[in-house]
Input
Amino acid sequence: MAKHSSVSIRNGEAMNGYFDDDGIIRTGTLITTSAHIMTVVIGSGVLSLAWCLAQLGWIIGVLILASFAFITWYACLLLTDCYRSPDPVSGNRNYNYMQAVKVNLGGFKYKLCALAQYTMQVGVSMGYIITSAISMAAVKRSNCFHKHGHNIGCHTLNNTYVLIFACIEIVLSQIPNFHKLALVSIVATIMSFAYAGIGFALSVAKVVGGTSAETSLTGKAVGPDLTSKEKMWIAFSAVGDIAFAYAFSLVLIEIQDTLKPSPPENKVMKKSCTIGIGGSSLIYMLCGVLGYLAFGNDSSGNYLTGFGFYEPFWLVDIGNICVVIHLLGSFQVVIQPFFAFVESCCREKWPGCKFIEKEYIIGKYSINLLRLTWRTTYVILAATVAMMFPFFNNFIGLIGSATYWPLTIYFPIEMYISRAKIQTGSFTWIWLRLLAFICLIVALLALAGCIRGLYFSVSSFELFRSVS
Output
């Protein structure tokens, strides 16, 4: 099962690469893995960080943003050494996150990991559909505002845009595995820099133009429109948004499995994590800080789709188009492990079945009937759910808050303690346990805030009525 989770060699693929000791071609480099990381880490959520700072204020907001960057980076360094077991350089490969957990921690925790990982992957993929549809609708609204004025609602249903995104993903989902996603990730990374740069530039223009809003050390002030209790719950949700922005560990092992065996994969991956998380954090900090300076305590959840900017409308349009292109790639990077898991299970259950294993060559492309039908069906179902529930982004926040701690913090730390045989009661053991406990408390508070937000969303939703 493990080997099927990676790419198998068919139809002369070896002509383009080098066979590793397990009969698999790997061509990944520091550049491609760094691009994969930034593709997953930098999402359209970067444009909501100004809102997060508005809820938390300068002191706590910046501190939490920096803390999560450091904690995620540190946990990922621990996780990179779990790609091979028992030795991180010469041991046997673990082809995915779940296999690493199974080898290092045993079957029970392996099942818990599977539940958390695949729930998060499915949920995030659906959230990407909704977010992309909102960005596409924002392009139409931006042109409407430019033509008719800012006082017109210019509202539109998102369903058409969900279908457009789904049709494109049906085609992209035929990319067989991570090893073939390098170009997609590079393009998506460029797009993420583009729309983050646009948000950065527009924020700078607003600040320099002297139209920036009021900010404060503690964020939005308690008053007639905001009770202290409401502020507390919203602050918890903001912490959850920041934590979820760094939740990419679930695909780190799969990304590492694309690397060439020399130099050692864990050493290259540590550099990739430093580059990917460092670059992402820099963008997060710039966009969050400048966005908060520009819009102050009234910052919207996303200042491209929430229209913190109206003009120049064409630049806002370009920013939203870049968001869509980026999420097209991010969808694939996030969901590929789930695709591979289902297809691997099918191969084990029905070995030798032509429908499952036979590859049909059409020009330069390889078509597999299981891959075509199963992945197309998944995209259709995901798009249907995204259209049915307009509050789905709140549900994604709930999933993110619930799975960030086990996938990004708990399992990497537990695997490191087990693999490195850290002595109970030692300084390292105490430090790692304390880190895991603090992150658990933060995750639970964020989860509580998301549950409250979901409750209010459910109370007023209508099926198939997602409106921008």
About this structure: The radius of gyration is 22 Å. The CA atoms of residues 269 and 313 lie 40 Å apart. The domain at 3-458 is CATH 1.10.4160 (Hydantoin permease).
